[in-house]
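Because discrete structure vocabularies remain unfamiliar, we turn briefly to a single example record, giving the amino acid sequence and backbone structure tokens:
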Amino acid sequence: MKKEIKDVRRAISERKKSRGVPTKSKTNKVSTIMPSLPQDEERHGFYPNFIDTSASNQNRSNTITGIILKGIFSVMLFFSIAIIWQNDAEFFEKPRQWTSNVLTEEFPFASAYKWYKDSFGTPLALSPTKEPEVTEAALALPVTGSVIETFQANGKGIMIAPNETTSVAALDEGFVIFAGKKSDTNKTIIIQHADGSTSTYGYLSSIDVHLYQIVSANQRIGEFSPTAESEMVYFSIEKDNEYVDPVQVIEVDENP
């Protein structure tokens, strides 16, 4: 019986030791439990990372994949637009008009340029060129000639008949938002001006400017040579999606 009691007490004592409960020894010394000292990493504020990094790695991989796909689609879109604009086929005329409206007419390039120029001076250029002095000039017809067809005849613009080969000049300072062939006016230039209006020059013999070029008032933008098939230059002014009679804007000599 005494042996069983001793076995029970010994088992209880061992459980207390395993739990960290102080027990009295034969020498009556109390055993103390020393806390574990922090490791170097814990002492300097570093603790083990118990977060699974597989999820974050997956998100990072998805982000990189998305960027690559967007880059591929951007390149494809760029080359598609380039093909549309380089091809003169009538099949691409509607896509050209759509891209022209999206990329040019919806953004006021001329207004933004004028604001920047008035606020900060001449924008930086790729090559150091001296800008000519700007002088106020009266608005004039793009070519020298007589108005053969008036605005009232078609409701869009006027037709001017030069007597000889002549330069075509810009109505006012602005941005070239179209320079190419159109189905209705053949070789055509459209310039966007700071007041939100656009001026169109059609049936030209040659074009001397390019898309997004900045032109000044009365600057040469092309040339017209009268032929049996083309004797007149088309000229129109449009503002707020409505055509304006150029005769009301410019003093011209009418000879219908």
About this structure: DSSP finds seven helices and eleven strands in the chain.
